[in-house]
Design brief:
3 domains; 3 helices; 4-stranded antiparallel β-sheet; mainly beta; about 300 residues
Amino acid sequence: MTVVSSREVLPRTFSHRFGESPTAERKYIVTVDAPTPTQDVIGHIGIVHGAAHPEYPYLLMLDASLSETDRHHVEVSYRYEIPQSGSGSTDFQPNPLQRRDVWSFAISGVSVPCTTYYDDNDQLLPLINTAGDFIESAMTEVSEVRAVINSNRPTFPLALAAYVANTLNDSEYLGCPKYTWKCNGISGQQAVEVVNGIEVRYYQITAELAYRSSGWQLLLPNVGWSVWSEQRQEKIRAYVGSPTDDDPSTRYVPSANPVALNEDGSIRLDSDLQGSGRPDILVRRVHRAVPFANYFGTPTF
């Protein structure tokens, strides 16, 4: 059960339809002294997955088929194509564990709570009405870029995936400022391929990142139902009106809405001391930040 000889037979075929990727085929006839194992036949010819076509180096052998025409002859057909994933034929790897990560992007609109707005001068202001009261439960839509990273790994990095999920970029990433990218989640599933007669088991891992130009920090108006009383050295119920006493708790009307606060927690009044003034915007980051480039890399082409 050995290979006696092999030779390529004509014709070679080549097909290229406009707008589509070209394909090519080659055939070999192998002479054996008896029925021979398939891998021995393929190994004798020496063309493996990922081998370049002799005339068209951008075409790689991605499909091989073998047929025993009789007891002493085997016909082997090779089909050459351009790899449709990764970065084409320039760095194609038959072994899934050696392939580059594959990136894809999508842009959509998502609904988010609205707490701020822009005036005519593009200044970011808290969303309040003309009386200075904070407007609650307002919603708006923002653009969100989703980046999906498909990668192959020998095992699923459970601890690492749990650590980076729901984190933000702690520095500039893909040309975007810090805190604008968020890892939405990481998933993985088992897969197996046979590469040149060897079974390769691995995990297909998908990581999803989301970008918002406004960032993922919370923009909150500095308002509250309670205010700090300097006279009483305690929190009291938020009020409206013009207290004239030294003790505002004796001359106030409980507010039906949260009121604007100063940095020290005291009530912020407008210029004529009638009602709440315009609140400041508090920026609060509630997600841990990590170096995204270290964990997710960058797209390669």
